[in-house]
Amino acid sequence: MEMEKVRLQKAISQAGVTSRRKAETMIAEGRVTVNGKTVTELGTKVASVDRIEVDGVPLTTEERVHILYYKPAGEISAVEDDRSRNTVTDAFKELDVRLYPVGRLDYDTSGILLLTNDGEFTQYMTHPKYKMRKTYRVKIDGILKREQQKEMRTGIMLDDGKTARAGLRVIRDKKDRQMILELTIHEGRNRQVRRMFEHFGLNVVKLTRIQYDFLNLNGLAEGEYRFLKPFEVKKLISNAKET
Ligand code: URA
After folding, report:
1. Which domains does the chain show, CATH number per domain?
2. Which of 11, 31, 81, 185 is 20 to 30 A from residue 142's alpha carbon, by CA?
């Protein structure tokens, strides 16, 4: 029996990575491989046995899974690590689906990490234009002075540009040498929170992402996870689109 073949761009859009139009651009840009070979020809037909990767990530026709994980410190947000440190995906081996972290948290950062096999969802959560808000609880050695708090709210110059407006609340101001604050940002630059405090010469000693848009860590202990409910996935995407 002849196996059904579809155009490559259709296969990519059906897998939920992106629209057919954008898939065409990705193909033309050389970001798509079929059975290990880069394909830039738009009309290429593929069958279900063909192994397709976009930016090195395999397409999946598996059911979409979205997970909220309370990442402990001491795990790396990658699928594999060349130094064989613990990775966040180790916790999900039993699930038998290929999950990818949505964005990343530093090795030493704990808190909300979303994981999914849904490429379209990942785009909505991580592309800067959607401005998803994330709140971090930050413990610092030292004191962030009132003036500096104001600066942090309005934007400070880091080596990759000025930060956008941010929310900042002081949670505990131990008159001795430490402070706990909550910082809400919608950018997701590398090590951004730590760098924002380093800007004032302050060292972050504990960092936890406690909120991701409307999601929080309620009901989860470190190292535990839960599946997002369909209404939560929908709400995250519609909140992303609203910005
Ligand atoms: N900002 C950081 O500095 N580290 C993280 O892990 C997340 C945000």
Report:
1. 6-58 (3.10.290.10), 66-127+218-242 (3.30.70.580), 133-212 (3.30.70.1560)
2. 185
Residues 6+ apart with CB under 8 A from 63: 97
CB-ligand 1 contact for 204 (6 Å cutoff): no
Is any atom of ligand 1 closer than 6 Å to the C-beta of 77? no
From the list 106, 160, 176, 213, the catalytic residue is: 106
In angstroms, rounded to a whole number, what is the distance separating the alpha carbons of residues 242 and 122?
A: 16
Q: Decide: 194 in ligand 1 pocket, CB within 6 A.
A: yes
* Measured distance CA(140)–CA(143) in Å, rounded: 7
Q: Once rounded to an integer, what is the mean pLDDT over residues 122-135?
A: 94
Distances (CA, A) of 234 to 230, 238, 239: 6, 6, 9
Q: At 157, give phi and psi (nearest 5°).
A: -85, 115
220, 163 contact by CB (below 8 A): no
- Residue 24 has phi, psi (to 5 degrees) of -60, -40
Residue 184, SS3 per DSSP: strand
55 is catalytic: no
CB 56 within 8 A of CB 100: no
pLDDT at 145: 94
> Dihedrals φ, ψ of 119, to 5°?
-65, -35
Question: Distance between CA 211 and CA 35 in Å, rounded?
Answer: 39
Rounded CA Rg of the chain? 20
